[in-house]
Amino acid sequence: MKVKNNLRILMAQHKMNIQDVHEKTGLSRTTISKLYNETSTTIGFDTIYQLCKLFDCDVSDLLFLNDEESE
Q1: pTM above the 0.85 mark?
Q2: For 59, which of 6, 9, 35, 71 is 20 to 30 Å away at the CA?
Q3: Nearest by Cα to 6 from 71, 65, 53, 50
Q4: Residue pair 36/64 in contact by the 8 Å Cβ criterion
Q5: Which pLDDT does position 69 carry in this prediction?
Q6: Sign, CA torsion 9/14/20/23
């Protein structure tokens, strides 16, 4: 089971790119890129807070468990 994220979807729904998220949250472009491309292995509570605040969403809208064996 893996923790996955919906950052790409949330960014598309709000018509934002990585630079927009960086400017609005103060998070590093590297952190945002890793989450966007799902290559990040960790995520800090502050990062989760900033993204949920930006997209006005709950943690469950941003993060979810994927139990597919192939991923």
Answers
A1: yes
A2: 71
A3: 65
A4: no
A5: 58
A6: negative
